[in-house]
Amino acid sequence: xxxxxxxxxxIQALQRLEAEVADAVGLTELAEAEGEQALVAEAxxxxxxxxxxxxxxxxxxxxxGEADANDAYVxxxxxxxxTEAQDxxxxxxxxxxxxxxQRDYKVQMxxxxxxxxxxxxxxxxxxxxxxxxxxxxxxxxxxxxxxxxPFDAAARRQTSFASVWVYPVVDETIDxxxxxxxxxxxxxxxxxxxxxHVNKTESAIRITHLPSGIVVACQTDRSQHRNRAIAMQMxxxxxxxxxxxxxxxxxxxxxxxxxxxxxxxxxxxxxxxxYQLVKDLRTGVEKGNPEAVLDGALDDFMAAALASRVGATRxxxxxQAR
Length: 322
Description:
Elements lengths: L1 H33 L2 H24 L11 E7 L4 H20 L3 E9 L5 E9 L3 H5 L4 E8 L8 E12 L14 E6 L6 H6 L3 E6 L4 E5 L5 H24 L3 H7 L8 E6 L5 E4 L5 E2 L2 H5 L4 H23 L1
Parallel strand pairs: 4-9
Antiparallel strand pairs: 1-3, 1-5, 2-3, 4-5, 6-7, 7-8, 9-10, 10-11
Helix pairs in contact: 1-2
């Protein structure tokens, strides 16, 4: 029923778009024949608006992957570099939170490991909304920041790295079998704000899946049982995402993008000094306003990455067919 509703909504939107285009074209022809320049301008403005909507819907049509409609987990880890990298990881968490808020998505912090002086060593967010995973999956990889360090008294330029990994939230319709003997479960005290109970009891949970080496952690709830349930859901999502990646033609490129958190593996560079530029190294998309990008203006980067992924998948499928 959910799939039927989604398809019905898309078809109705396309039919409405076609009808409005036909009406606008008819109005333009009539206005030109009668010399009504004001009506011509109005009709052309309507056509421009419809063209922009058609472009947005064309991008939405790229979200056709098996799990693209699902919610998403976003895991951010600071690279080498101490406080600089940890501050950068926190900036990335804020960037994705702002992007989600602008789309009216819900964001929940599931796990956070505070840095010694500032920032975070790692943080896991759950982003809930239509096609959240479909959009955010394009952000997986290493992100590089170049800026004048706010932590350096000599005001020297520093380069920092952080990795972003995205995987879909698995719903109850997907059955994933996990052997309890393959799990290592650790409890620990939650870090950061949260009240005396959170910080004085070992309510946080860390689960390691021994065969794959996947590690997940959750400290969002006061209840250890609730945190364990959420952590198990995250583990199932990670295992499911790994299977999806094996099926996708772009799996090799995605895996290579997340190998080392350092030089040669970044997908995007954010330069704040000596000039200002954000450049996606996969698609070549550039933005000269890093402040807007860090405040959540990511749609152009995501759309270009989606288009390139779909194009690569189709090219490989054609090659296999030949």
